[in-house]
Amino acid sequence: MIMETERKIGHLHPLTIAQRDVELIMRGLGFDIAFGPELESEHYNFDVLNMPADHPSRDMQDTLWLKPEHRTKEFQILRTHLSGVQVREMEKRTMPTRVTVLYGRVFRNEATDASHEANYYQMEALYVDKKVTLADLKGTLTYFCKKFFNDDNVKIRFRPSYFPFVEPALEVDMWWKDRWLEIAGSGLVHPNVLRAAGVDPEVWTGYAFSFGIDRLMMLRHGVPDIRLSYTGDLRFVQQF
Amino acid sequence: MKISYKWLQTFFEQPLPPVDKLVETSNFKIVEVEGTEEIARDTIIDLKILADRAAYMLSHQGVAREFAATLDLKLKNRQITAVSPLKEVLAPKVNIDSELCRRYTARRVEGIRVRESPEWLKSSLTKLGQRSINNIVDLANFVMFDIGQPLHAFDADKVQGSVVIRLAKEGEIIETLDDRRVTLREQDLVIADDAGPIAIAGVKGGKRAGVTEATTNLLLESANFNPSSVRKTSTSLGLRTDASKRFENNLTADLCLEALENFSALITEAIPTAQFSAVTDIYPKPEETKKILINPNLISERLGMEVPRGEQGKILARMGLEPRIVLDSKDGLISVKIPTYRRDLSIPEDFAEEIGRIWGYDKLPETLPAPVPVKVNKEYYYTEKVRNLLRDFGFSEVYLYSLVSKGELEVQLPLADDKKCYRHDLSEGLQKCLTANRPNLALLDATSIDIFEIGHVYEGSKEKLKLGIASTDNRRINEGLASIADLIGKAEIKNNVRELDWGEALDGLPEPNSYDDLGFELTKSITTFKQYSQYPFILRDIATWLPDLQTPPDAEKIIKSEGGEWLVRVNLFDQFSKNDKTSCAFRLVFQSMDRTLTDEDVNAVIARITKALTKEGYIIR
Prior knowledge:
The structure holds two protein chains of two kinds. Chain A is α+β, with helices and mostly antiparallel strands. Chain A has a single domain, classed as Bira Bifunctional Protein, Domain 2 (BirA Bifunctional Protein, domain 2). Helices cover about 25% and strands about 30% of the residues of chain A. In chain A, helix 1 packs across helix 6. Chain B has five domains: about 1-70, Phenylalanyl-tRNA Synthetase, Chain B, domain 1 (2-Layer Sandwich), CATH 3.30.56; about 95-280, Phenylalanyl-trna Synthetase, Chain B, domain 3 (Phenylalanyl-tRNA Synthetase, Chain B, domain 3); about 290-360, Phenylalanyl-tRNA Synthetase, Chain B, domain 1; about 380-520, BirA Bifunctional Protein, domain 2; about 540-620, 2-Layer Sandwich (Alpha-Beta Plaits). Helix content of chain B is about 30%, strand content about 25%. Chain B has a five-stranded mixed sheet. In chain B, strands 5, 6, 13, 14 and 15 form a five-stranded antiparallel sheet that branches. In chain B, a hairpin with a 3-residue loop joins strand 11 (about 195-200) and strand 12. In chain B, helix 6 packs across helix 9 and helix 19 (about 555-565) crosses helix 20. Chains A and B meet through helix 1, strand 1, strand 3, strand 5 and strand 6 of A and helix 2, helix 7, helix 10, helix 12 and helix 13 of B.
């Protein structure tokens, strides 16, 4: 008699599990979800984000452009970040608003190694209201990291940085398991970005931050190589 | 940008704090430090200067100003003694023929000798990773690393007629100092003489009028060019230079004269017999210093912490912005003068950053916005629902690459041949994924590979969200599909994969009211990833009669304890009873983390297991 194999439950990808956690944490703070296209326009990826053409700020990202003959009016590049979705959402919504951009696959034209992939995932959060402050941003980031890593000892610190779409711009480090880790980029939404999205910067202010989902997931589970996620190998997926 | 600690010291009266203090200050108040290196009793600090501060921080002076502001250090007055020009040496004739040249200063120098640089100069540059070329070129570079202005020296005797800054003629050719023949386009700005281009403006000098060992007379250039023009030219020619990097970041044109005088003074020091002409300075539209009003309350409001107005004033003063309190203003406004080199300061938020970082972001309190209810997102709701259903039905989720070798949407300059196109389906990837996983069936303790992916593809001139379901066993796909039938309707399978337009399926579904039935909970127990072996595995079966005992010792436990580190899985796959005797059959999977196992390796382990089982009364069949 051959034993009837019991049907086993399958496994969700750890990046899905991480993104569900992100959504749940942000939902607790009143953030809705938004999605956006992977094939993005120069307009939403750069122009509305205070990154004019022929400006050195565009060098910060190794952009993957489509071949000129494959570009259309709607898209010309593979998105390098989700900040364009923030603008798309502000255009659609009335203020105040809170939004988490999820399942955000982004692309970079750089050599791959254990910590770099041609495609990977980000999340972005946007909060627009009257008198949003850096203290709000810091409080939110601390709350987020404590929840995500299920550890109340997590601490957050800021370092000055530059992202054209926020001002002030901040790198975020997290104190976790006895070390500081670079974990996110953030800042107050630049008035030019609000203006480009049709939001009056004299009335509204906002913060925005972005985490690499792969990095969050890898830190949490001790995954040593970003590429493991995209191999399709079930020996990887079935561990989660 | 590499900075020498000793060089930096020349900007200050007082001794600088130790290197580690500078590094910490920079990281938390200025810019990120990428590393430090001890070279020749000096320390080189490598700073990551991003585009906002690159207009003024790509020099020791710019960095010195930042440390002065953050550490409250006094900057030294480094005024140099300007050389005295001679009437007999004629100032160069220059004509600016394009607005892209914002300023051009030049002077003629006679009686120089080109030779090896003195030791101090060589060492100053080589410590920064620069090659020493000769005394003249090295002094020009020294001034650039000192105060940020790129300079150029031509051999004056090889310049024919007068100098003009103009757009290139389409197809005009220049041979650059590094022996490249470059074909110019009409949007490229050049420095030319009567015979043609002698330099690509702000990017690279030309060979024809280049300085050689035989040069005795120089034409010195200190100029400023339109940032995006320099950027376009350097990008299209693939020529990124120390000069182009500075110009494309909008260097102030106010620096030209100071740099030319510094360069001249250094030449005189090195070659006391050198004779200088007066300076030709063409500056059609001088830059103006901006005055800005700052509202200290607004700064504190943006930061979310109170920085007293007096403290804000002190910080602004240390930054060299000459703050003045505006009398009679209701908000206690502060007026500041923005030096032309500070391109990054124009709106209140810019000052929130300056005051925030120097006052200290570590002083920020933490506040949380009060929660509000959220709107349920339909796409998210159903996508997560379908994920749950498929998972519960035994399907595992994969994330595969968007960039593949074939497709209708091609990217420009792909990094690799297999990443040329944006994917047009999920099926191809899923198919490969089945093939790749199939050999591991035993290792996965599965009878079929059952997978799915939800992802974006480009198909029929549109970006679509698709759901792909695949299995090595077609019956499993049908069963999987049945489990989500009320979400997607009927489906057809091709080659072990079924792919459907999930975005379209969503359109037909009712609006959800809440996420509650998804049963989400925050991940609390966090599994640690275990590396799996890259080497092949070996399968062995052991079938045995159970000993005739009331409670026979656990066979699986015995097998595991004897199996050693190579035994990665034990699976009871067959069990039956005959004449009061019970048989059990186990499938054993062996694999090593660091090599391919041989039959002999595994035979030895099997022998150990057999012996142990036999000892406990098992009879191996």
